[in-house]
C-alpha cells in the first residue's frame, strides 16, 4: 500500500551553513547593484557598477587625502554649546554626537599629502547634515591660522546643507569668519583647494566652498546656493535634469574640475605643487 | 511679503489718526474750533505710539521691518546725502535693480552708498524683485566697493532684503560664488565700511553687504540666518499660516537688535522715532545720519592695514563654543 510513499528521512544539510552577518552586503543607492561591503569600501565607496559616489564620512576623506600615519587631528576639544537656548538643540546635539561622534560637523587635521605638509578640514554630513555653527567656523579659522603660521596649504572638503539654524545669526557670521581667514591666506599667497561633495549648499557654498584657488567637485554632487526643493517652491516648476550637479557647475564655469574620488589625492597634490612652487611629484602610488 | 496694509497691533494708532483727520476735515469749514481737541488727541497719539512700540514682540518687529511704509535705501539716499549719482551694472551680465548704489556726499564728504532696494507697490517690486538680488547685483556692489577703494572713499551699505534670490538663473550664474566673493573682498577692502540693517537682514543675501567695520542696526530691524517662516517649517513642519509657530520661531532665532548686540553681531542700535521709522522718515534719517558721521569719523583715523586687521578680528571673534 505504501509503495508510493517515500520514506521520510530527516534532511541533513550537506555542509555547515555559513553565518552571513546581515551587513555584509550593500546596495548602491543609484543603480541597485549589490556587492560585498568590503568591495565597496576598497573602491572608496564608489559603486563598482555605475561609478556613483556614495556619501562617506569626514574621517574617510582624511584617510583618502593624507599620507598614511601622518594625520594629526586638531581642535578635538571644541564642542557646540547652546548660545540661544534654542528649542531642542541640546537634545539634537546629543543625538548627533551619539550617531556621528564628537567632532561636530567637521574634522580638521594637519598631515602630509604626497609628502607635502598640509592642513585638511573635512565636513561630516552625518553630524546634523553637516550644518555650520560656531564650532565649524572656529575649527576652520584655527586650521587656517595654523596654515598662516606654518605656511602650509589648506584643503577643505565640504558636505553641508548650510548654516546651523539652531545657532541663529552666530552661524551666519561663521561665513564671514571663514572669509576673514581665507583673505589672510590669499594675502600671504598660501594656496587653498576647495573640494565640493554631495551636497554643498546654503551658507557653506556661499562662503569658503566657493573661494578655493582651485575648486574641485565629486561627480554627481549637488551644489548650489538654494537647495533644489526651495528653488522648485520659489519658481513653481520642475527643475531641468541635472540642474545643480557638479557637471552642471563645470559647464557653467563655477568649478575647475569634476574629479573622481580615486583621483582626488593626486589632483589636489598636483595643484598644490603648482601653486606652491614645488617641483612635480615623482613616484605617485595609488591612493 | 511686505504690504501697505496696517499691521494688527497698529490698528488703534491708525484709528486715532483717522479721528484726528476727520476732526481736521470738519474744522475745515471754519465753523467750529477744534484745535484744543486735536491737540489732546495728538498728544494721546504720541503716547500710544511710544507705548505700542516700546513693547514689540520679535514677530511684530519682523512685520515692522518688512513694512513697505518704512524708509528704503533710496529714501535714506535722498534724505541723508547730496550729489547722489547712481551707477549701474556689473559689467558682465546686466543691471540688477534689487541693489542700488553710487557716489554721494555725506555732509560734504564723498562716500560710496550701496543698498538693497525694495519696492512699495507691485509694479516697483517686479522691477526690484522684492529686494532679492541676483548674482549680478552682488557683483555690481563689489564693483562699486572696489571703485571706492581705488579712490580712498568709504563705503556705506544699507541692508534690506528677505534674502538672495533662489531661482534658475541665479544658480546658473553663481549666486553662491557672488556672495562668497563679496565676503572675501569685504574682508580685505582698505577703506572704511559701515553697514546698517535698515529693515530685514535675510541671511547670506544680507551678509554679502554687511562684512563691515561697524554694523549698525535700526531698533526695529531684524537680522536672521533663515526666515521665521522657513524656521517654523523645518522645526515644526508648520505651513505659512500657522501664526503661533511663526511667533515661536521669531523668538527662538534671536533676530532683534537687542538680541544681537550682546552676541557682538552688531555694534550699535540706532533708535527709531516713537512709532517706528515709518512714522517719521525725516527724524529717522537725521538720527542715522548722525550715527554714520560719528562712526566714519572714528574709522577714518585708522591706517588701512589696521582697519582691515581690526575688521577681520571682529568677525573672527564671533561665535560661542566650549573647550
Short key terms for the protein model shown above:
A: 287 residues, alpha/beta, 2-enoyl-CoA Hydratase, Chain A, domain 1, 2 domains, two-stranded antiparallel ribbon, 9 helices, 11 strands, 32% helix, B: 323 residues, eight-stranded mixed beta sheet, globular
Shape of chain B: globular
Find the structural class of chain A using helix and strand composition. alpha/beta
CATH homologous superfamily heading of the largest domain in chain B: 2-enoyl-CoA Hydratase, Chain A, domain 1
What count of domains describes the coordinates of chain A? 2
The major beta sheet of chain B can be summarized as:
8 strands, mixed
Total number of domains of chain B: 2
Mean pLDDT of chain B: 94
> What is the 3D shape of chain A?
globular
Named CATH topology of the largest domain in chain A: 2-enoyl-CoA Hydratase, Chain A, domain 1
Spatial extent as radius of gyration of chain B: 21 Å
Helix content of chain A: 25-40%
The percent range for helix content of chain B is 40-55%
CATH architecture of the largest domain in chain A, please? Alpha-Beta Complex
Word description of this protein:
The complex is a heterodimer of chains A (287) and B (323). Chain A folds into 2 domains: 31 residues, no CATH class; 220 residues, 2-enoyl-CoA Hydratase, Chain A, domain 1 (Alpha-Beta Complex). Chain A is built from 9 helices and 11 strands. The longest helix of chain A has 20 residues. The N and C termini of chain A lie far apart (73 Å). Chain A is globular, with a radius of gyration of 23 Å. Chain A is an alpha/beta fold. In chain A, the strands form 2 sheets. In chain A, strands 3, 5, 6, 7, 8, 9, 10 and 11 form an 8-stranded mixed β-sheet that branches. Chain A has a two-stranded antiparallel ribbon with strand order 1-2. Chain B is α/β, with parallel strands linked by helices and 323 residues long. Chain B folds into 2 domains: 48 residues; 256 residues, Alpha-Beta Complex (2-enoyl-CoA Hydratase, Chain A, domain 1). Helix content of chain B is 48%, strand content 16%. Chain B is built from 14 helices and 9 strands. In chain B, strands 1, 2, 3, 4, 5, 6, 7 and 8 form an 8-stranded mixed β-sheet that branches. In chain B, helix 4 crosses helix 13, helix 6 packs parallel to helix 8 and helix 10 crosses helix 11. The mean pLDDT of chain B is 94. The interface between A and B is large, with 63 and 51 residues. Strand 4 of chain A pairs antiparallel with strand 9 of chain B, so a sheet runs across the interface.
Amino acid at each position: 500500500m505504501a509503495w508510493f510513499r517515500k520514506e521520510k528521512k530527516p534532511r541533513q544539510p550537506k555542509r555547515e551553513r555559513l553565518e552571513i552577518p546581515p551587513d555584509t552586503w550593500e546596495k548602491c543607492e543609484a543603480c541597485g547593484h549589490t556587492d560585498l561591503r568590503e568591495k565597496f569600501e576598497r573602491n572608496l565607496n564608489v559603486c563598482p557598477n555605475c561609478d556613483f559616489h556614495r556619501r562617506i564620512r569626514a574621517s574617510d576623506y582624511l584617510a583618502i587625502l593624507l599620507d598614511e600615519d601622518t594625520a594629526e587631528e586638531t581642535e578635538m576639544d571644541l564642542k557646540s554649546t547652546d548660545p540661544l537656548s534654542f528649542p531642542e538643540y541640546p537634545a539634537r546635539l546629543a543625538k548627533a554626537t551619539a550617531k556621528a561622534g564628537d567632532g561636530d560637523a567637521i574634522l580638521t587635521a594637519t598631515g602630509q599629502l604626497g609628502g607635502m605638509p598640509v592642513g585638511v578640514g573635512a565636513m561630516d554630513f552625518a553630524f546634523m547634515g553637516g550644518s555650520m555653527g560656531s564650532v565649524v567656523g572656529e575649527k576652520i579659522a584655527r586650521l587656517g591660522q595654523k596654515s598662516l603660521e606654518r605656511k602650509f596649504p589648506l584643503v577643505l572638503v565640504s558636505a553641508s546643507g548650510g548654516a546651523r539654524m539652531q545657532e541663529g545669526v552666530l552661524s551666519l557670521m561663521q561665513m564671514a569668519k571663514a572669509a576673514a581667514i581665507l583673505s589672510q591666506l590669499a594675502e600671504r599667497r598660501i594656496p587653498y583647494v576647495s573640494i565640493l561633495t554631495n551636497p554643498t549648499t546654503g551658507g557653506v557654498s556661499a562662503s569658503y566652498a566657493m573661494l578655493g584657488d582651485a575648486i574641485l567637485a565629486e561627480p554627481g554632487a549637488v551644489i548650489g546656493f538654494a537647495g533644489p526643493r526651495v528653488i522648485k517652491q520659489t519658481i513653481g516648476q520642475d527643475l531641468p535634469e541635472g540642474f545643480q550637479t557638479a557637471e552642471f557647475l563645470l559647464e557653467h564655469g563655477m568649478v575647475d574640475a569634476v574629479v573622481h574620488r580615486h583621483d582626488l589625492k593626486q589632483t589636489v597634490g598636483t595643484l598644490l605643487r603648482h601653486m606652491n612652487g614645488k617641483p612635480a611629484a615623482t613616484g605617485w602610488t595609488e591612493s | 511679503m511686505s504690504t501697505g496694509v496696517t499691521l494688527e497691533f497698529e490698528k488703534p494708532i491708525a484709528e486715532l489718526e483717522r479721528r484726528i483727520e476727520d476732526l481736521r476735515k470738519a474744522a475745515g469749514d471754519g465753523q467750529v474750533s477744534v484745535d484744543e481737541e486735536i491737540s489732546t488727541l495728538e498728544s494721546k497719539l504720541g503716547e500710544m505710539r511710544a507705548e505700542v512700540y516700546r513693547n514689540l514682540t520679535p514677530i511684530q518687529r519682523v512685520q515692522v521691518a518688512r513694512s513697505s511704509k518704512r524708509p528704503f535705501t533710496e529714501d535714506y539716499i535722498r534724505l541723508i546725502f547730496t550729489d547722489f549719482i547712481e551707477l549701474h551694472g556689473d559689467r558682465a551680465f546686466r543691471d540688477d535693480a534689487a541693489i542700488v548704489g553710487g557716489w554721494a556726499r555725506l555732509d560734504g564728504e564723498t562716500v560710496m552708498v550701496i543698498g538693497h532696494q525694495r519696492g512699495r507697490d507691485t509694479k516697483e517690486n517686479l522691477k526690484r524683485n522684492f529686494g532679492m538680488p541676483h548674482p549680478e547685483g552682488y557683483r555690481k556692489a563689489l564693483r562699486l566697493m572696489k571703485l571706492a577703494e581705488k579712490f580712498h572713499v568709504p563705503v556705506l551699505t544699507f541692508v534690506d532684503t528677505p534674502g538672495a534670490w533662489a531661482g534658475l538663473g541665479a544658480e546658473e550664474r553663481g549666486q553662491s560664488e557672488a556672495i562668497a566673493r563679496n565676503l572675501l573682498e569685504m574682508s580685505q577692502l582698505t577703506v572704511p565700511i559701515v553697514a546698517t540693517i535698515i529693515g530685514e537682514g535675510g541671511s547670506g543675501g544680507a551678509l554679502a553687504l554687511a562684512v563691515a567695520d561697524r554694523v549698525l542696526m535700526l531698533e526695529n530691524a531684524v537680522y536672521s540666518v533663515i526666515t521665521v517662516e522657513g524656521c517654523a517649517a523645518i522645526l515644526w513642519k508648520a505651513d505659512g499660516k500657522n501664526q503661533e509657530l511663526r511667533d515661536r520661531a521669531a523668538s527662538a532665532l534671536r533676530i532683534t537688535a537687542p538680541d544681537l548686540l550682546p552676541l557682538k553681531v552688531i555694534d550699535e542700535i540706532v533708535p527709531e522715532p516713537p512709532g517706528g521709522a515709518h512714522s517719521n522718515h525725516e527724524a529717522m534719517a537725521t538720527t542715522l545720519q548722525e550715527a554714520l558721521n560719528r562712526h566714519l569719523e572714528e574709522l577714518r583715523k585708522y591706517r588701512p592695514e589696521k582697519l582691515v586687521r581690526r575688521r577681520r578680528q571682529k568677525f573672527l571673534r564671533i561665535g560661542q563654543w566650549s573647550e
